[in-house]
Amino acid sequence: MREQWGSSAGFIVATIGAAVGLGNIWRFAYVTGENGGGAFLLLYLGCVALIGLPLMMAELALGRRAGADAVTAFDTCGRASIWRHAGWIGVIAAALILSYYAVIAGWALRYVFGAATGGLWQAGPAGYAAYFEGFIGHGVEPILWQATMLAAAGLVVSAGIKGGIERLNRWLMPVLAVIVVMLAAFAMTLPGGMRGVAFVLSPDWSVLARPAVYLNALGQAFFSLGVGMAVFITYASYLDRRTSIPRAAVAVAAGDTAFAIVAGLAIFPAVFAFGGDPAAGPRLAFVTLPQVFAHMPAGTIIGLVFFLLLAAAALTSMMSLLEVPVSVLVERTGLPRAGAVVIVTVAVFLAGLPSALSYGVLQHWTLGGLPLLDWVDQATSNITLPLGGLAVAIFVGWRIAPRAALADADLAQGRTGWIWLWLLRIVVPVTILLILLRSLAWW
Ligand code: PHE
Fold first, then answer.
1. Where are the alpha helices (H) located in 285-443, listed in sequence order?
2. What gap in Å lies between CA 411 and CA 416, rounded to an integer?
3. Residue 371 β-bridge partners
C-alpha cells in the first residue's frame, strides 16, 4: 500500500514546513525592501488570498484525488491529451528551484558555522560585504555547503513520508515559530526599531505606479506559498479523506503569511535601527544583517539563532521540493525510494553548480544583466511558477467535472465551493496571464 501521513496535524505541520522557508525570511525581506514596503505587502496579501489560496486548494484536491505522483495526477484524460505532460511543468519547476535554493540554504548553513565559531564576527564593521563576497566568490566552498544541505534533505526524504518528513517537521516547525517571534519581539524594542515596523506596515502608495511591483507581488506569493510546483499535489497524494482541504489550505496560507510578516518585523526594525539599507537586495540577509547584529546587544547570539532559523526553515522546504521528483521517479520506474533520492539529489546538485559558482568563477556570465543564480530565481518564480499555477487552475477549474472538483476539495456543500471554482476558472488564470504577458513585455 502507498504510504500515508501519520495524522492530519502531521500533514499540516509538514505542509507549513514546505511553505515556510527562505521565501519567508531571505526573499520576503529583500523583495519587500526593494518594492517599497507596506503597499507591496498589501498587494502580496491580495495575491495570497485571491490566487495563492484557491490554487493551493486545487493542488491539494488534485493530489489527494490522484493518490499518485504529480505527473500521474494530470494524466487522466487519455493518451492523446496534452494534459499527460502538464505535470512535468511542476516537476521541472521544483527541481530548478531546488537547484539554486540549495545554494542559498548552503550560504545560511555556512553563516551558522561562521557565527558559532566567531569567524563571522571578526569581519569588522566594514568587512561584512568582503566576508560575503570572499565566501561566495570562493571556488569550492559554496559547493561544499550546497552539497551538505542537499545531503541532509536527501537523508530525511529517504526515510519516507511519515518516518522522515513528518517526524522532522513535527518538532522543528514549532521551535522555528517560537524563535521568529522572539527575534521580532527583541528587534521591535531596539531604539529606532519602530521605523522598521512602519516600513512594513504603512503603505507608500506611490510604488503602485511601477508595473514590476505587481509581478513581484505575484511571484513572491507563488514562491512563498510554494504553489505552482506540484509540492501540494505530491504532499496531498499521501493524505486520507478525513482531513478537510479548505481548512488545511487556510492553515497553511495563514501560517506562511504570518511567518513572513513576523520575520519582516524581526528584520526591518533591526535594519532601520542601525541605518542599514532596506533595499539592499538578495544580500540583505547576508551582508546588512550581520552588520546590524554586530552592533546589537547580544548580537552574536541573535545572529547565530537567526542563521540557524534560516537554514532549518530552508531544509524543511528542500525536503518538499525533493519529494516531488522523487515520487515521480519511484512511482513511474519502480525504483526504491533511497535510489531515487540519490539520483535526484545528484542531478539537482549538478544543475545547481552554475548557481553556486555564479558569484565566483562564473561571475562574468550573466543573463539579462543578472548573475546566473538571480536569473534562475527570477525566471522560475516569475515565469515557471505562474505557468505551473495556470495549468492547475485550468485543469481543476475546467477539465474536471465541477461536481467532482467540488467534492475532491471537500466543498460539495454550500456556496463557498462555487466561489472557489469561479476564482479558479476566471480570476486566477486571467490575473496570471495578464501579469505574465506584462512581464514578458518588460523582460
Ligand atoms: N515556499 C518555500 C519558501 O518560502 C519555497 C518552496 C517553494 C518550497 C516551492 C516548496 C515549493 O521558501
1. 289-295, 299-333, 337-356, 372-379, 385-394, 402-408, 416-422, 428-442
2. 7
3. 366
Percent of the chain clearing pLDDT 70 (strictly above): 98
* Residue 18 beta carbon below 6 angstroms from any ligand 1 atom: yes
Cα–Cα distance for residue pair 431/383, rounded to 1 Å: 13
Q: DSSP characters for 276-327?
A: --TT-GGGIIIIIHHHHHHHSTTHHHHHHHHHHHHHHHHHHHHHHHHHHHHH
**181 CA → ligand 1 middle, Å:** 20
| Cα–Cα–Cα angle for 297, 31, 36, rounded to 5 degrees | 85
| Residue 27 CA to ligand 1 centre (angstroms) | 10
**pLDDT digits over 56-79, tens only?**
999 999 999 999 999 999 987 777
Q: Is the full-model pTM beyond 0.85?
A: yes
* Residue of 28, 165, 320 to mutate, ligand 1, most atoms within 8 A of C-beta: 320
pLDDT classification of 412: cutoffs 50, 70, 90: very high
Q: Are 323 and 234 in contact (CB under 8 A)?
A: yes
